[in-house]
Amino acid sequence: MNVAFAEREGYHEALIGETDSLALMKQQVADILKICIERGTRRLLVDMTKFRGTLSTLDRYELGTLTASFAPHVERGAILAKADQIDVEKFGVKVARNRGLNVDIFTDRDKALAWLLEPA
């Protein structure tokens, strides 16, 4: 597992390890889900800024579907990404939201944390 996971005040943080492989990133997301279930994570910040690959529309759909599997376990999730990783339509976020996950994506860590930690 190439994921760093830390408990912070009011949330947990996961750092996707450096890779350009979508398959490896998906495995890391699955590993993060297992950790969240074990630790009872309710709010989660996922930092994917070390991902170096490119994402097609299909990739975004698949990641959104995979991310949605957090919904029964995680109350709110924020994703931190580089600007070039975020689709202008936030398609992957829409896919996850349509499947029940309260999630959003940000390029600014402070904005991500402000959103993540605001009262439900």
Number of helices: 4
Count of the separate structural domains: 1
Helix content: 25-40%
In CATH, the architecture is: 2-Layer Sandwich
Shape: globular
First-residue to last-residue Cα separation: 31 Å
Order of helices and strands: EEHEHEHEH
Trace the largest sheet across and list its strands. Answer: 1-2-3-4-5
Radius of gyration: 13 Å
Helices and strands: which structural class?
alpha/beta
Q: What is the CATH class?
A: Alpha Beta
Average pLDDT level: 94
Describe the model.
- This protein is an alpha/beta fold and 120 residues long.
- It has a single domain, classed as 2-Layer Sandwich (Transcription Regulator spoIIAA).
- 39% of the residues lie in helices and 22% in strands.
- The chain is built from four helices and five strands, in the order ββαβαβαβα.
- It has helices at residues 22-39, 57-68, 91-98, 109-117, and strands spanning 3-8, 11-16, 43-47, 76-80, 103-106.
- It has a five-stranded mixed sheet with strand order 1-2-3-4-5, sandwiched between helices.
- Helix 1 packs parallel to helix 2 (57-68) and helix 2 runs parallel beside helix 3 (91-98).
- It is globular.
- 27% of the residues are buried.
- The mean pLDDT is 94.
